[in-house]
Design a protein that fits this description.
By secondary structure, the protein is mostly helical. The chain has eleven helices and four strands, in the order H-H-H-E-H-E-E-E-H-H-H-H-H-H-H. Strands 1-2-4-3 form a four-stranded mixed beta sheet, with helices on both faces. It is elongated.
């Protein structure tokens, strides 16, 4: 019976946000533990300075990327501004959804691809873009396209880009610190091994090496999990905006069929596949399900059917 228990979209959104905050805290905790163990394992005097420098560079890099994320995403997929005359339904649906949701009107773009897909980007609702593929405009009916666009506006309204930027900063810092620590061992020669019978330091050194290897993998998996949670949350928000989950359900079914049995036209446009770095932005994962940033389509449909 529990399988068929209906879910209120407000509960779904709140639950996914709580889980995301917990996972962000988990990544931060891993970073603190890694830094603490490394400081115990080696002389922190020089390493500490390098770590601070690397962290500053990482934060600056991600901040610059964050403030220009929409421009980078649009340029990387070769998208062009949507025409109000040529893409009237696209404009009409987004305008209707922004009125219903209270969100500002984003800039609209069309990406050259026969696959059904879409993405939203931007640091906040006032600096947001929504991009859909040519395939989405051609293959989805009005209700299905509305569901997809409501999902993307859900990402904008939920400030998902802000969440994912915080995660990206933390993942970047952990990866950089781990790399610095592991490389420092190669350049240290045998000097650190002559620190007389300091068994405690040797133990922390071993633990530090293990953490430096495993921490980036763990936080990457956490990052994937957070991305999946936000997909469920955006689906729930789409239902909130449209008050009708069926359009989104039908769109997901079409996407599943489209990806499982790509036609010749779709195969010809595989060159337009985006960078894997942009995969978390898309409505559906444009790559095969290897370390997927998106939950299985079947599970998304199941959750929507219970709303």
């Amino acid at each position: 019976m529990d399988k068929y228990t209906r879910i209120d979209f407000r509960d779904q959104i709140a639950r996914n946000k709580r889980k995301s905050f917990f996972m962000i805290f988990l990544i931060f905790l891993i970073f603190l533990i890694l830094g603490y163990v490394i400081s115990l394992a080696i002389d922190p005097s020089l390493t500490f300075i390098i770590m601070i420098f690397a962290i500053i560079i990482s934060i600056l890099y991600v901040t610059i990327s964050f403030y220009n994320s929409h421009k980078i995403a649009i340029a990387s997929v070769g998208a062009k501004p949507a025409s109000r005359n040529e893409h009237k339904m696209f404009y009409d649906l987004v305008e209707g959804l922004t009125i219903a949701s209270g969100l500002p009107m984003p800039k609209l773009y069309v990406m050259p691809s026969n696959q059904i897909n879409a993405f939203a980007s931007g640091r906040n609702p006032k600096h947001a873009v929504v991009c859909v593929t040519e395939g989405a405009l051609e293959k989805l009916d009005r209700r299905e396209l509305e569901g997809v666009l409501a999902h993307e506006l859900g990402h904008i309204g939920n400030y998902d880009m802000r969440y994912m930027t915080v995660i990206a900063v933390m993942v970047g810092m952990i990866a950089i610190v781990s790399e610095i620590f592991l490389r420092s061992l190669w350049f240290s020669g045998g000097s650190r091994g002559n620190s007389d019978n300091n068994k405690a330091q040797a133990i922390f050194l071993i633990i530090g090496i293990l953490l430096a290897i495993l921490a980036p993998i763990v936080v990457y998996l956490v990052q994937l999990s957070i991305s999946r949670k936000h997909e469920y949350s955006a689906d729930a928000t789409a239902v909130k905006f449209t008050r009708n989950p069926q359009g989104l359900i039908n769109a997901l079914k079409k996407i599943k069929s489209d990806y499982e049995k790509p036609n010749e036209g779709t195969m010809q446009k595989q060159k337009n596949k985006p960078s894997k770095a942009l995969t978390p932005l898309f409505f559906a994962n444009p790559f095969k399900n290897l370390g997927s940033t998106h939950p299985p389509i079947e599970k998304r449909i199941s959750a929507l059917e219970r709303m």
